[in-house]
Amino acid sequence: MTHHRYSEAEISAVYRAIYERRDMRHFLTDPVDPELLNRLLQAAHHAPSVGFMQPWRFIRISSLTLRHELHTLVEQERILTAQALNEREQEFMRLKVEGILEAPVLLVAALCDQREQHVFGRRTLPEMDLASLACAIQNIWLAARAEGLGLGWVSMFDPEAVKYRLNMPQDSHPVAILCLGHVEAFYTKPMLEEQNWAERQNLGDLLFENTWNTPCR
Amino acid sequence: MTHHRYSEAEISAVYRAIYERRDMRHFLTDPVDPELLNRLLQAAHHAPSVGFMQPWRFIRISSLTLRHELHTLVEQERILTAQALNEREQEFMRLKVEGILEAPVLLVAALCDQREQHVFGRRTLPEMDLASLACAIQNIWLAARAEGLGLGWVSMFDPEAVKYRLNMPQDSHPVAILCLGHVEAFYTKPMLEEQNWAERQNLGDLLFENTWNTPCR
Protein backbone atom coordinates (compact mmCIF):
# COMPACT_ATOMS: atom_id res chain seq x y z
CA MET A 1 0.00 0.00 0.00
CA THR A 2 2.99 2.31 -0.25
CA HIS A 3 3.93 2.18 -3.91
CA HIS A 4 2.38 5.58 -4.66
CA ARG A 5 4.25 7.16 -1.75
CA TYR A 6 6.96 9.69 -2.60
CA SER A 7 10.45 9.40 -1.10
CA GLU A 8 10.83 10.70 2.46
CA ALA A 9 12.84 13.64 1.10
CA GLU A 10 10.07 14.56 -1.31
CA ILE A 11 7.37 14.23 1.35
CA SER A 12 9.41 16.46 3.67
CA ALA A 13 9.75 19.06 0.92
CA VAL A 14 5.98 19.24 0.46
CA TYR A 15 5.40 19.65 4.20
CA ARG A 16 8.25 22.16 4.40
CA ALA A 17 6.51 24.40 1.85
CA ILE A 18 3.19 24.00 3.67
CA TYR A 19 4.69 24.97 7.03
CA GLU A 20 7.01 27.73 5.82
CA ARG A 21 4.51 29.48 3.52
CA ARG A 22 3.56 32.90 4.84
CA ASP A 23 1.16 35.67 3.83
CA MET A 24 3.80 38.31 3.08
CA ARG A 25 3.41 42.09 3.19
CA HIS A 26 7.12 43.05 2.98
CA PHE A 27 8.91 42.70 -0.35
CA LEU A 28 12.21 43.51 -1.99
CA THR A 29 11.95 45.35 -5.29
CA ASP A 30 14.26 42.95 -7.18
CA PRO A 31 12.57 41.70 -10.34
CA VAL A 32 10.98 38.26 -10.63
CA ASP A 33 12.27 36.01 -13.41
CA PRO A 34 9.49 35.77 -16.06
CA GLU A 35 10.06 32.02 -16.41
CA LEU A 36 9.63 31.57 -12.68
CA LEU A 37 6.37 33.56 -12.81
CA ASN A 38 5.21 31.34 -15.65
CA ARG A 39 5.96 28.22 -13.58
CA LEU A 40 3.84 29.63 -10.76
CA LEU A 41 0.92 30.38 -13.07
CA GLN A 42 1.15 26.90 -14.59
CA ALA A 43 1.02 25.51 -11.05
CA ALA A 44 -2.13 27.56 -10.44
CA HIS A 45 -3.64 26.23 -13.65
CA HIS A 46 -3.13 22.65 -12.40
CA ALA A 47 -5.25 23.17 -9.31
CA PRO A 48 -8.42 21.15 -8.89
CA SER A 49 -11.59 22.79 -10.14
CA VAL A 50 -15.21 21.89 -9.68
CA GLY A 51 -16.46 20.09 -12.79
CA PHE A 52 -13.05 20.96 -14.33
CA MET A 53 -14.42 24.46 -14.97
CA GLN A 54 -11.07 26.24 -14.47
CA PRO A 55 -12.75 29.46 -13.36
CA TRP A 56 -9.49 31.30 -12.59
CA ARG A 57 -8.32 34.41 -14.43
CA PHE A 58 -5.19 36.41 -13.60
CA ILE A 59 -4.69 40.02 -14.58
CA ARG A 60 -1.09 41.16 -14.46
CA ILE A 61 -0.86 44.81 -13.43
CA SER A 62 2.07 46.34 -15.30
CA SER A 63 0.63 49.88 -15.43
CA LEU A 64 2.03 52.04 -12.66
CA THR A 65 -1.11 54.17 -12.74
CA LEU A 66 -3.32 51.14 -12.20
CA ARG A 67 -1.06 49.91 -9.41
CA HIS A 68 -1.48 53.21 -7.59
CA GLU A 69 -5.24 53.18 -8.16
CA LEU A 70 -5.49 49.70 -6.68
CA HIS A 71 -3.39 50.81 -3.73
CA THR A 72 -5.74 53.74 -3.18
CA LEU A 73 -8.76 51.42 -3.23
CA VAL A 74 -7.13 49.15 -0.66
CA GLU A 75 -6.20 52.12 1.52
CA GLN A 76 -9.83 53.31 1.43
CA GLU A 77 -11.07 49.90 2.49
CA ARG A 78 -8.37 49.61 5.16
CA ILE A 79 -9.82 52.67 6.87
CA LEU A 80 -13.40 51.43 6.56
CA THR A 81 -12.31 48.07 7.97
CA ALA A 82 -10.58 49.78 10.89
CA GLN A 83 -13.74 51.69 11.70
CA ALA A 84 -15.80 48.51 11.52
CA LEU A 85 -13.44 46.88 14.02
CA ASN A 86 -14.51 49.34 16.74
CA GLU A 87 -12.31 48.86 19.81
CA ARG A 88 -9.52 47.23 17.78
CA GLU A 89 -9.38 50.14 15.28
CA GLN A 90 -6.05 51.58 16.44
CA GLU A 91 -4.43 48.19 16.83
CA PHE A 92 -5.51 47.30 13.30
CA MET A 93 -4.24 50.56 11.83
CA ARG A 94 -0.74 49.77 13.10
CA LEU A 95 -0.59 46.51 11.14
CA LYS A 96 0.99 46.38 7.69
CA VAL A 97 -1.69 44.66 5.64
CA GLU A 98 -0.33 44.83 2.08
CA GLY A 99 2.76 45.42 -0.04
CA ILE A 100 1.09 46.62 -3.24
CA LEU A 101 3.50 49.43 -4.01
CA GLU A 102 6.66 47.43 -3.29
CA ALA A 103 5.96 43.99 -4.76
CA PRO A 104 7.57 43.61 -8.19
CA VAL A 105 4.69 41.46 -9.46
CA LEU A 106 1.07 42.42 -8.92
CA LEU A 107 -1.75 40.16 -10.07
CA VAL A 108 -5.50 40.46 -9.68
CA ALA A 109 -7.06 37.00 -9.35
CA ALA A 110 -10.68 36.75 -10.41
CA LEU A 111 -13.50 34.38 -11.18
CA CYS A 112 -14.43 34.33 -14.84
CA ASP A 113 -17.71 35.52 -16.27
CA GLN A 114 -20.56 33.23 -17.45
CA ARG A 115 -20.10 30.82 -14.56
CA GLU A 116 -23.81 29.98 -14.29
CA GLN A 117 -23.47 27.49 -17.17
CA HIS A 118 -21.31 25.29 -14.91
CA VAL A 119 -23.71 23.17 -12.88
CA PHE A 120 -21.47 20.15 -12.10
CA GLY A 121 -20.80 20.25 -8.35
CA ARG A 122 -22.30 23.72 -8.07
CA ARG A 123 -26.09 23.33 -8.19
CA THR A 124 -26.44 23.59 -4.41
CA LEU A 125 -22.99 25.08 -3.70
CA PRO A 126 -22.33 27.68 -6.42
CA GLU A 127 -19.46 29.09 -4.39
CA MET A 128 -17.34 26.06 -5.34
CA ASP A 129 -15.92 28.23 -8.14
CA LEU A 130 -14.23 30.37 -5.48
CA ALA A 131 -12.96 27.24 -3.75
CA SER A 132 -11.28 26.22 -7.02
CA LEU A 133 -9.65 29.62 -7.44
CA ALA A 134 -8.44 29.52 -3.84
CA CYS A 135 -6.80 26.13 -4.48
CA ALA A 136 -5.06 27.66 -7.51
CA ILE A 137 -3.75 30.52 -5.39
CA GLN A 138 -2.56 28.07 -2.74
CA ASN A 139 -0.62 26.27 -5.48
CA ILE A 140 1.10 29.55 -6.38
CA TRP A 141 1.77 30.22 -2.70
CA LEU A 142 3.44 26.87 -2.06
CA ALA A 143 5.41 26.80 -5.32
CA ALA A 144 6.52 30.39 -4.71
CA ARG A 145 7.73 29.50 -1.22
CA ALA A 146 9.78 26.63 -2.62
CA GLU A 147 11.21 28.98 -5.25
CA GLY A 148 12.12 31.41 -2.48
CA LEU A 149 9.44 34.03 -3.22
CA GLY A 150 6.80 35.52 -0.97
CA LEU A 151 3.15 36.05 -1.79
CA GLY A 152 0.52 38.18 -0.09
CA TRP A 153 -3.24 37.87 -0.68
CA VAL A 154 -5.00 41.22 -0.25
CA SER A 155 -8.80 41.05 -0.01
CA MET A 156 -9.43 44.57 1.28
CA PHE A 157 -11.08 46.33 -1.62
CA ASP A 158 -14.45 47.10 -3.13
CA PRO A 159 -14.79 44.44 -5.85
CA GLU A 160 -17.06 46.67 -7.93
CA ALA A 161 -14.43 49.42 -8.00
CA VAL A 162 -11.73 46.93 -9.08
CA LYS A 163 -13.99 45.55 -11.80
CA TYR A 164 -14.61 49.03 -13.12
CA ARG A 165 -10.91 49.90 -13.30
CA LEU A 166 -9.92 46.68 -15.05
CA ASN A 167 -12.88 46.65 -17.46
CA MET A 168 -14.09 43.36 -16.04
CA PRO A 169 -17.45 41.89 -17.08
CA GLN A 170 -20.31 42.46 -14.66
CA ASP A 171 -20.54 38.74 -13.84
CA SER A 172 -16.84 38.24 -13.23
CA HIS A 173 -15.56 38.71 -9.68
CA PRO A 174 -12.14 39.82 -8.39
CA VAL A 175 -11.21 38.12 -5.12
CA ALA A 176 -7.51 38.81 -4.62
CA ILE A 177 -4.82 41.35 -5.26
CA LEU A 178 -1.74 39.14 -5.16
CA CYS A 179 1.59 40.71 -4.25
CA LEU A 180 4.55 38.56 -5.30
CA GLY A 181 8.26 39.05 -4.95
CA HIS A 182 11.52 38.26 -3.25
CA VAL A 183 11.64 38.98 0.46
CA GLU A 184 14.32 39.91 2.95
CA ALA A 185 13.01 37.29 5.36
CA PHE A 186 9.95 35.13 5.75
CA TYR A 187 8.03 35.67 8.98
CA THR A 188 8.80 32.80 11.36
CA LYS A 189 5.10 32.68 12.31
CA PRO A 190 2.02 34.17 10.62
CA MET A 191 2.47 37.94 10.90
CA LEU A 192 -0.89 38.29 12.65
CA GLU A 193 0.32 35.76 15.23
CA GLU A 194 3.66 37.54 15.65
CA GLN A 195 1.81 40.83 16.14
CA ASN A 196 -0.61 39.27 18.63
CA TRP A 197 -3.65 39.96 16.48
CA ALA A 198 -4.85 36.36 16.92
CA GLU A 199 -3.54 33.03 18.18
CA ARG A 200 -3.36 29.68 16.49
CA GLN A 201 -6.18 27.49 17.73
CA ASN A 202 -5.68 23.94 18.96
CA LEU A 203 -6.33 21.57 16.09
CA GLY A 204 -8.13 19.18 18.42
CA ASP A 205 -10.77 21.83 19.06
CA LEU A 206 -11.54 21.99 15.33
CA LEU A 207 -12.02 18.25 14.79
CA PHE A 208 -15.31 16.54 15.54
CA GLU A 209 -16.62 13.01 15.17
CA ASN A 210 -19.99 12.34 13.55
CA THR A 211 -21.66 15.31 15.18
CA TRP A 212 -20.76 18.95 15.76
CA ASN A 213 -18.78 19.74 18.92
CA THR A 214 -18.16 16.09 19.72
CA PRO A 215 -14.39 15.61 20.02
CA CYS A 216 -12.73 12.82 18.07
CA ARG A 217 -11.99 9.75 20.17
CA MET B 1 18.24 36.84 -4.20
CA THR B 2 18.20 33.08 -4.01
CA HIS B 3 18.99 32.34 -0.37
CA HIS B 4 15.35 31.50 0.46
CA ARG B 5 15.14 29.10 -2.47
CA TYR B 6 14.79 25.41 -1.68
CA SER B 7 17.09 22.82 -3.27
CA GLU B 8 16.19 21.79 -6.81
CA ALA B 9 15.08 18.39 -5.48
CA GLU B 10 12.74 20.02 -2.97
CA ILE B 11 11.31 22.40 -5.56
CA SER B 12 10.70 19.46 -7.90
CA ALA B 13 8.90 17.58 -5.13
CA VAL B 14 6.49 20.48 -4.56
CA TYR B 15 5.72 20.74 -8.28
CA ARG B 16 5.43 16.96 -8.52
CA ALA B 17 2.66 16.96 -5.89
CA ILE B 18 0.93 19.88 -7.62
CA TYR B 19 0.98 18.14 -11.01
CA GLU B 20 0.21 14.60 -9.83
CA ARG B 21 -2.63 15.51 -7.43
CA ARG B 22 -5.98 14.21 -8.66
CA ASP B 23 -9.59 14.43 -7.56
CA MET B 24 -10.07 10.72 -6.83
CA ARG B 25 -13.33 8.75 -6.86
CA HIS B 26 -11.85 5.23 -6.76
CA PHE B 27 -10.40 3.95 -3.49
CA LEU B 28 -9.01 0.81 -1.93
CA THR B 29 -10.53 -0.14 1.39
CA ASP B 30 -7.17 -0.56 3.19
CA PRO B 31 -7.11 1.49 6.38
CA VAL B 32 -5.32 4.83 6.66
CA ASP B 33 -2.66 5.13 9.37
CA PRO B 34 -4.06 7.46 12.08
CA GLU B 35 -0.71 9.27 12.37
CA LEU B 36 -0.74 9.93 8.64
CA LEU B 37 -4.28 11.32 8.90
CA ASN B 38 -3.13 13.55 11.74
CA ARG B 39 -0.26 14.87 9.61
CA LEU B 40 -2.75 15.75 6.86
CA LEU B 41 -5.03 17.58 9.27
CA GLN B 42 -2.08 19.48 10.74
CA ALA B 43 -1.15 20.47 7.19
CA ALA B 44 -4.70 21.75 6.70
CA HIS B 45 -4.46 23.72 9.92
CA HIS B 46 -1.34 25.49 8.61
CA ALA B 47 -3.12 26.91 5.58
CA PRO B 48 -3.43 30.66 5.23
CA SER B 49 -6.62 32.17 6.61
CA VAL B 50 -8.11 35.62 6.24
CA GLY B 51 -7.32 37.66 9.36
CA PHE B 52 -5.92 34.38 10.81
CA MET B 53 -9.53 33.35 11.54
CA GLN B 54 -8.92 29.61 10.97
CA PRO B 55 -12.55 29.01 9.95
CA TRP B 56 -12.05 25.33 9.12
CA ARG B 57 -13.77 22.49 10.96
CA PHE B 58 -13.51 18.81 10.06
CA ILE B 59 -16.05 16.20 11.10
CA ARG B 60 -14.79 12.64 10.88
CA ILE B 61 -17.60 10.28 9.90
CA SER B 62 -16.99 6.99 11.71
CA SER B 63 -20.66 6.00 11.92
CA LEU B 64 -21.63 3.62 9.14
CA THR B 65 -25.23 4.83 9.35
CA LEU B 66 -24.17 8.43 8.83
CA ARG B 67 -21.91 7.42 5.95
CA HIS B 68 -24.84 5.79 4.20
CA GLU B 69 -27.06 8.80 4.89
CA LEU B 70 -24.47 11.12 3.36
CA HIS B 71 -24.19 8.81 0.37
CA THR B 72 -27.95 8.92 -0.07
CA LEU B 73 -27.93 12.73 0.03
CA VAL B 74 -25.21 12.83 -2.62
CA GLU B 75 -27.08 10.35 -4.77
CA GLN B 76 -30.22 12.51 -4.57
CA GLU B 77 -28.26 15.58 -5.64
CA ARG B 78 -26.49 13.65 -8.39
CA ILE B 79 -29.86 12.97 -10.01
CA LEU B 80 -31.02 16.57 -9.62
CA THR B 81 -27.73 17.75 -11.10
CA ALA B 82 -28.12 15.38 -14.04
CA GLN B 83 -31.60 16.75 -14.74
CA ALA B 84 -30.28 20.32 -14.55
CA LEU B 85 -27.63 19.45 -17.14
CA ASN B 86 -30.31 18.86 -19.78
CA GLU B 87 -28.69 17.43 -22.92
CA ARG B 88 -25.66 16.16 -20.99
CA GLU B 89 -27.82 14.26 -18.46
CA GLN B 90 -27.00 10.76 -19.70
CA GLU B 91 -23.31 11.52 -20.19
CA PHE B 92 -23.15 12.88 -16.64
CA MET B 93 -24.95 9.87 -15.15
CA ARG B 94 -22.27 7.56 -16.55
CA LEU B 95 -19.50 9.37 -14.64
CA LYS B 96 -18.34 8.16 -11.24
CA VAL B 97 -18.52 11.30 -9.14
CA GLU B 98 -17.74 10.06 -5.63
CA GLY B 99 -16.29 7.22 -3.58
CA ILE B 100 -18.15 7.78 -0.32
CA LEU B 101 -18.93 4.14 0.41
CA GLU B 102 -15.43 2.85 -0.42
CA ALA B 103 -13.09 5.48 1.03
CA PRO B 104 -11.71 4.36 4.40
CA VAL B 105 -11.69 7.93 5.72
CA LEU B 106 -14.66 10.24 5.30
CA LEU B 107 -14.52 13.85 6.50
CA VAL B 108 -17.03 16.65 6.22
CA ALA B 109 -15.24 19.98 5.89
CA ALA B 110 -17.18 23.01 7.06
CA LEU B 111 -16.98 26.69 7.87
CA CYS B 112 -17.39 27.41 11.57
CA ASP B 113 -20.29 29.29 13.11
CA GLN B 114 -20.15 32.90 14.33
CA ARG B 115 -18.05 34.05 11.41
CA GLU B 116 -19.61 37.51 11.22
CA GLN B 117 -17.34 38.70 14.05
CA HIS B 118 -14.35 38.34 11.70
CA VAL B 119 -14.15 41.58 9.71
CA PHE B 120 -10.42 41.63 8.82
CA GLY B 121 -10.20 41.08 5.05
CA ARG B 122 -13.89 40.19 4.86
CA ARG B 123 -15.85 43.44 5.10
CA THR B 124 -16.39 43.62 1.34
CA LEU B 125 -15.52 39.97 0.54
CA PRO B 126 -17.11 37.85 3.28
CA GLU B 127 -16.55 34.74 1.17
CA MET B 128 -12.83 34.84 2.03
CA ASP B 129 -13.62 32.36 4.81
CA LEU B 130 -14.39 29.78 2.14
CA ALA B 131 -11.18 30.68 0.32
CA SER B 132 -9.25 29.91 3.52
CA LEU B 133 -10.96 26.55 3.95
CA ALA B 134 -10.26 25.70 0.30
CA CYS B 135 -6.55 26.43 0.85
CA ALA B 136 -6.64 24.08 3.84
CA ILE B 137 -8.19 21.33 1.73
CA GLN B 138 -5.59 21.90 -1.00
CA ASN B 139 -2.90 21.39 1.66
CA ILE B 140 -4.46 18.05 2.56
CA TRP B 141 -4.69 17.16 -1.12
CA LEU B 142 -1.03 17.85 -1.85
CA ALA B 143 0.30 16.28 1.33
CA ALA B 144 -1.90 13.23 0.75
CA ARG B 145 -0.57 12.86 -2.79
CA ALA B 146 3.00 12.93 -1.49
CA GLU B 147 2.07 10.34 1.14
CA GLY B 148 0.58 8.19 -1.63
CA LEU B 149 -3.09 8.73 -0.77
CA GLY B 150 -5.91 9.97 -2.93
CA LEU B 151 -8.53 12.55 -1.99
CA GLY B 152 -11.87 13.39 -3.57
CA TRP B 153 -13.87 16.56 -2.88
CA VAL B 154 -17.61 15.93 -3.21
CA SER B 155 -19.77 19.07 -3.34
CA MET B 156 -22.99 17.46 -4.56
CA PHE B 157 -25.31 17.65 -1.58
CA ASP B 158 -27.91 19.87 0.03
CA PRO B 159 -25.92 21.72 2.73
CA GLU B 160 -29.02 22.14 4.90
CA ALA B 161 -29.60 18.39 4.95
CA VAL B 162 -25.97 17.72 5.91
CA LYS B 163 -26.15 20.34 8.68
CA TYR B 164 -29.27 18.69 10.07
CA ARG B 165 -27.73 15.20 10.14
CA LEU B 166 -24.50 16.34 11.82
CA ASN B 167 -26.19 18.69 14.32
CA MET B 168 -24.35 21.64 12.88
CA PRO B 169 -25.17 25.20 13.99
CA GLN B 170 -27.42 27.17 11.66
CA ASP B 171 -24.62 29.64 10.81
CA SER B 172 -22.02 26.97 10.07
CA HIS B 173 -21.72 25.72 6.50
CA PRO B 174 -20.56 22.35 5.11
CA VAL B 175 -18.75 22.68 1.80
CA ALA B 176 -17.08 19.33 1.20
CA ILE B 177 -17.47 15.64 1.79
CA LEU B 178 -13.85 14.52 1.58
CA CYS B 179 -13.11 10.92 0.60
CA LEU B 180 -9.59 9.86 1.53
CA GLY B 181 -7.75 6.62 1.07
CA HIS B 182 -5.22 4.51 -0.72
CA VAL B 183 -5.81 4.04 -4.43
CA GLU B 184 -5.01 1.39 -6.99
CA ALA B 185 -3.78 4.04 -9.41
CA PHE B 186 -3.93 7.79 -9.73
CA TYR B 187 -5.60 9.03 -12.90
CA THR B 188 -2.93 10.20 -15.33
CA LYS B 189 -5.07 13.23 -16.18
CA PRO B 190 -8.07 14.76 -14.38
CA MET B 191 -10.82 12.13 -14.62
CA LEU B 192 -13.18 14.61 -16.27
CA GLU B 193 -10.52 15.22 -18.92
CA GLU B 194 -9.92 11.48 -19.41
CA GLN B 195 -13.68 10.97 -19.80
CA ASN B 196 -13.96 13.88 -22.23
CA TRP B 197 -16.28 15.87 -19.99
CA ALA B 198 -14.15 19.00 -20.44
CA GLU B 199 -10.75 19.99 -21.80
CA ARG B 200 -7.92 21.84 -20.15
CA GLN B 201 -7.92 25.42 -21.34
CA ASN B 202 -4.83 27.20 -22.62
CA LEU B 203 -3.25 29.10 -19.78
CA GLY B 204 -2.49 32.01 -22.08
CA ASP B 205 -6.22 32.53 -22.61
CA LEU B 206 -6.72 32.99 -18.87
CA LEU B 207 -3.99 35.63 -18.36
CA PHE B 208 -4.64 39.29 -19.04
CA GLU B 209 -2.60 42.46 -18.70
CA ASN B 210 -4.06 45.52 -16.98
CA THR B 211 -7.48 45.09 -18.52
CA TRP B 212 -9.87 42.18 -19.08
CA ASN B 213 -9.39 40.15 -22.28
CA THR B 214 -6.13 41.90 -23.15
CA PRO B 215 -3.48 39.17 -23.54
CA CYS B 216 -0.20 39.49 -21.70
CA ARG B 217 2.62 40.77 -23.84
Could you describe the 3D structure shown?
Two copies of one chain form a homodimer. The first copy, chain A, is an alpha+beta fold and 217 residues long. Chain A contains seven helices and six strands. Chain A has a four-stranded antiparallel β-sheet, sandwiched between helices. In chain A, strands 5-6 form a two-stranded antiparallel ribbon. Chain A is globular and about 55 Å long. The two termini of chain A are 25 Å apart. The model of chain A has no long low-confidence stretch (mean pLDDT 97). At the A-B interface, α1, α2, β1, α3 and α5 of A face α1, α2, β1, α3 and α5 of B.
Quick overview:
Two copies of one chain form a homodimer. Chain A is an alpha+beta fold.
What's the gyration radius of chain A in Å?
19 Å
Oligomer: homodimer
Shape of chain A: globular
Please give the number of β-strands of chain A.
6
CATH architecture of chain A: 3-Layer(aba) Sandwich
Number of helices of chain A: 7
Kindly provide the name of the CATH class of chain A: Alpha Beta
Q: How much beta of chain A, percentage-wise? A: 15-25%
User: Helix- and strand-based class of chain A?
Assistant: alpha+beta
Order of helices and strands of chain A: HHEHHEHEHEHEE
How can the largest sheet of chain A be summarized?
4 strands, antiparallel
How do the strands of the widest beta sheet of chain A line up side by side?
Answer: 1-2-4-3
Number of domains of chain A: 1
What is the CATH H-level superfamily of chain A? NADH Oxidase
Helices, strands, pairings?
The structure is a homodimer of 217-residue chains.
Chain A: H1 8-20, H2 34-45, E1 56-60, H3 64-84, H4 89-93, E2 105-111, H5 128-146, E3 149-154, H6 159-165, E4 173-182, H7 191-194, E5 207-209, E6 211-215
Antiparallel strand pairs in A: 1-2, 2-4, 3-4, 5-6
Helix pairs in contact in A: 1-5, 2-5
